[in-house]
Write a sequence for this structure.
C-alpha cells in the first residue's frame, strides 16, 4: 500500500452511506492510467453495505425529497461548488481517467451545464390536462397528470466520462425527487467520490445520495439483487446492459450502450469545417467515446484529399503524458486496452489494411491511427474499437454508404457532411440511429439534447429534460363531479 503517486486533493476512499464515508471490505488500487502507478486504494463496499445503502435511500425516498425549488437551488449551487473544486477534479481525472488537461476541463464545463439544466427541470416538471370531452359519457370529468418520483434510482456508470455521464444520471434523478445509489466504474471511482463531496457541500440531503465503490461482478451484481431499487440507469457495454436488463424484470431501466459510429463526407462537404471535427471526434479522449467516429465513409472524388488531410492532422496530435499541456491524445484506460487496440490494428494490416499513420503503442498510449482498405470483417471495422483509430472507406453510391453505416448491430449516432438538402433529408430518413447530425460528426453532443440509441445501443433518453421524465412516473388524477 506504499509508493502511491501523490495526487493533491484526493477525496475519501470509502463508500458514501447516509452522509458518512465508510471503509469497505476490500481495498482495490486505482491506477494513474499513464504511468500505471497506484494513486489510491479505494475500498469496495461489502454486501451488507450495499444493502444498507439501498435501505437508506429507500427510507429517504419514502419520506419524500425536499420541494422542487430546494432541489433546484442545491443543484444550481453544486455547479458553483464544482467550479471551486475544478483543480481537484482536473488532477483526479487526469490521473484516474488518463484525460488530457483539455478533456478534463471540457468534462467539468459540461458537468456544470448538466447541473444547471437539471436544476431547471426540477421546477418545470409538468403534466397535462386530459380532454375528457372527447369521450362520450366522460365529458363532465376533469383529468390531469402529475409526475412523481419512482423512488430509488440506481446509477451504474462507465469509465470514459467519469463526471458528466455520472451527473446525467444523478442530477436528473434527484431533480425528479428520487434517492440515488451510484456505482461508478472501478477504473474511475475517485471522480465520483469528489462529486459526492460537492453535492453534499451544495446541500443535497445525505440520505439521497449513496456511492458504493467496487467491481461490476461483485457490487454491480449485488445491486441487481436489491428489489427496493425501482429504476436502473446504466451507461456501459451492451454485454453488461443485457445482464442488467435481465435482472430488472418489470422494473424500468435506461440503457446507454455500445456503438460503432459512422460519419459520411460527401464531395460537396466544407472540408475546412469537416477535417478538424472528424479528427477530434475520432481521437479525443483517446477514442474512448461512445460516439467516436470509427468508420468514415468519404465520397470517391475527395477520398484521397480527405485521407491525406486527416493523416496530416492526426500527425500533429501529440500522444503521451496527459499532464503535458501539449498532449492531445492521452493513455487508454489500461495497458490491456491499449494492447487490444494494437492487436486489432495488426490484425487489420494482416488482412490487407493500410495503416497510414500511428498505431504505435507505448505502455497504455497508442498513437492516433488512420487506416484505409480495412477488411470488412476486420475488428477495427465491425466491433466497437474504443481506441484512437479511424478507418476510412471511399464510396461511389450515397445509398450504399448509408446502408453501410446502418449495417452494424448498433444505432447510437451518425454524422453526414453535405451541402445537398436532398441528401441530408435522405440521411435523416434512412440512418437508423438515435441521433443523425448534418454537417457535424457522430460525436457532437450538447447536454441539453435528447441523447440515446436504438438497436443494441439501448433505449431511453438522457439530457435532463428527458431523463427526468424517464425517472418519474405519471399519475392520472380524475375528478368526476
Ligand atoms: P462496462 O459495461 O464494462 O462497465 C460499465 C459499468 O458496469 C461499470 O461500473 C461496471 O463495473 C459495471 N458492471 C460490469 N459488470 C456488471 C454486472 N455484472 N452487473 C452490474 N454492473 C456491472 O463498460 P465500460 O468499459 O466501463 O465503458 C465502455 C462502454 O460504455 C462502451 O461500450 C461504450 O460504448 C459504452 N458507453 C456508452 C455510452 C452511451 O451513451 N451509449 C456512453 C459512454 C460509454
Amino acid at each position: 500500500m506504499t509508493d502511491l503517486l501523490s495526487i493533491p486533493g484526493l477525496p475519501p476512499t470509502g463508500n458514501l452511506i447516509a452522509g458518512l464515508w465508510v471503509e469497505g471490505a476490500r481495498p482495490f488500487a486505482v491506477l494513474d492510467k499513464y504511468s500505471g502507478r497506484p494513486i489510491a486504494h479505494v475500498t469496495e463496499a461489502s454486501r451488507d453495505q450495499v444493502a444498507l445503502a439501498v435501505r437508506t435511500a429507500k427510507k429517504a425516498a419514502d419520506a419524500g425529497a425536499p420541494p422542487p425549488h430546494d432541489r433546484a437551488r442545491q443543484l444550481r449551487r453544486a455547479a458553483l461548488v464544482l467550479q471551486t473544486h475544478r483543480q481537484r477534479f482536473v488532477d483526479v481525472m487526469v490521473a484516474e481517467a488518463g484525460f488530457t488537461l483539455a478533456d478534463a476541463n471540457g468534462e467539468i464545463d459540461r458537468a456544470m451545464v448538466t447541473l444547471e439544466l437539471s436544476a431547471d427541470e426540477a421546477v418545470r416538471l409538468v403534466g397535462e390536462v386530459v380532454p375528457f370531452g372527447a369521450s362520450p359519457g366522460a365529458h363532465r370529468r376533469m383529468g390531469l397528470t402529475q409526475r412523481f418520483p419512482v423512488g430509488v434510482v440506481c446509477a451504474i456508470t462507465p469509465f470514459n466520462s467519469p463526471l458528466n455521464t455520472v451527473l446525467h444520471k444523478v442530477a436528473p434523478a434527484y431533480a425528479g425527487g428520487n434517492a440515488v445509489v451510484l456505482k461508478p466504474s472501478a477504473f474511475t471511482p475517485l471522480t465520483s467520490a469528489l462529486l459526492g463531496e460537492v453535492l453534499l457541500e451544495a446541500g443535497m440531503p445525505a440520505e439521497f445520495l449513496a456511492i458504493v465503490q467496487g467491481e461490476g461482478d461483485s457490487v454491480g451484481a449485488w445491486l441487481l439483487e436489491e428489489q427496493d431499487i425501482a429504476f436502473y440507469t446504466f451507461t456501459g457495454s451492451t454485454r453488461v446492459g443485457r445482464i442488467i436488463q435481465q435482472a430488472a424484470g418489470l422494473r424500468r431501466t435506461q440503457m446507454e450502450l455500445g456503438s460503432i459510429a459512422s460519419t459520411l463526407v460527401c464531395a460537396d462537404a466544407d472540408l475546412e469545417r469537416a477535417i478538424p471535427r472528424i479528427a477530434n471526434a475520432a481521437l479525443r479522449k483517446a477514442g474512448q467515446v461512445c460516439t467516436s467516429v470509427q468508420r468514415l465513409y468519404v465520397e470517391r472524388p475527395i477520398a484521397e484529399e480527405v485521407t491525406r488531410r486527416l493523416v496530416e492532422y492526426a500527425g500533429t496530435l501529440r500522444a503521451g503524458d496527459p499532464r503535458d499541456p501539449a498532449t492531445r491524445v492521452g493513455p487508454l484506460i489500461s495497458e490491456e486496452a491499449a494492447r487490444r487496440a494494437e492487436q486489432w490494428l495488426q490484425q487489420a494490416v494482416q488482412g490487407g489494411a493500410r495503416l497510414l499513420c500511428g498505431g504505435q503503442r507505448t505502455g497504455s498510449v497508442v498513437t492516433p491511427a488512420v487506416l484505409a482498405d480495412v477488411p470488412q470483417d476486420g475488428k477495427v471495422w465491425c466491433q466497437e474499437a474504443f481506441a484512437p483509430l479511424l478507418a476510412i472507406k471511399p464510396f461511389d453510391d450515397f445509398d450504399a454508404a448509408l446502408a453501410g453505416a446502418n449495417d452494424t448491430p448498433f444505432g447510437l449516432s451518425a454524422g453526414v457532411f453535405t451541402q445537398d438538402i436532398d441528401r441530408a433529408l435522405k440521411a435523416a430518413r434512412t440512418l437508423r440511429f438515435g441521433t443523425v447530425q448534418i454537417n457535424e460528426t457522430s460525436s457532437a453532443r450538447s447536454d441539453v439534447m435528447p441523447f440515446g440509441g436504438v438497436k443494441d445501443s439501448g433505449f431511453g433518453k438522457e439530457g435532463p429534460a428527458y431523463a427526468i421524465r424517464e425517472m418519474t412516473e405519471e399519475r392520472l388524477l380524475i375528478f368526476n363531479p
